[in-house]
Specification:
- The protein is mostly helical and 189 residues long.
- The protein has two domains: 9-66, no CATH class; 76-184, no CATH class.
- It has eight helices and no strands.
- It has helices spanning 9-25, 30-39, 48-54, 57-67, 69-79, 83-101, 137-151, 157-167.
Length: 189
């Protein structure tokens, strides 16, 4: 389990207490039952890879923030982006996720949390025409597409998203901050 290095001890203790509540709520999960039955006498907490599955988005964000700059830079580097940009994308995606979880409208929403863009010199595709509005879901979909391409190159998410938009052609893409020729944008080809 991560130590509270880089955050005040009380914040770390509060985070652990929240994680403990999240673990207790998931007590009927097979992997939690197995861990408790098999390893509880040797370990007080779930290993991190199990705990992450139970964390709320807020807990994940707190965890990422507390991990410190060295780890944040390493994770961001795995995706090929600077850590500040990576964190802005995480915050943006969590904002969208929360809106979806609460059944809020997202298709034409103007988001207060705006993702940054990578530098133009190292990442010219992100600045190619046509551009996506920074405060709309179109850019967020583009970020998701980029991440999924890194995480699982064989993903069919792009094709499924195109099919979804094809099924509902009456939905105006411009209200989502998506330019008309977005499917030919270098990030989407």
């Amino acid at each position: 389990m991560v130590k509270g290095k880089g955050i005040p001890r009380t914040d770390y203790q509060n985070w652990l207490a929240k994680l403990s509540r999240e673990t207790n709520r998931a007590g009927n999960e097979a992997f939690v039952k197995h861990f408790k039955a098999t390893y509880c006498d040797m370990h007080d907490s779930l290993p991190l890879w199990m705990a992450c599955e139970l964390m709320s988005c807020g807990s994940v964000l707190e965890f990422i923030t507390a991990a410190g700059p060295t780890i944040q830079k390493q994770v961001a580097a795995d995706f090929g982006y600077p850590d500040a940009l990576f964190l802005s994308w995480i915050k943006t995606i969590f904002s969208v996720r929360n809106a979806c979880a609460h059944h809020a409208r997202v298709w034409n929403r103007v988001f207060g949390v705006k993702p940054g863009l990578p530098g133009k010199n190292k990442n010219p595709k992100w600045h190619a025409a046509p551009t996506f509005d920074h405060d709309r879901v179109g850019l967020i979909l583009t970020i998701c597409h980029a991440w999924l391409g890194k995480i699982t190159p064989t993903t069919q998410w792009r094709a499924r998203l195109f099919a979804l938009f094809d099924e509902f052609p009456e939905v105006p893409l411009s209200d989502m901050g998506i330019p008309v020729t977005w499917r030919t944008h270098p990030l989407w080809i």
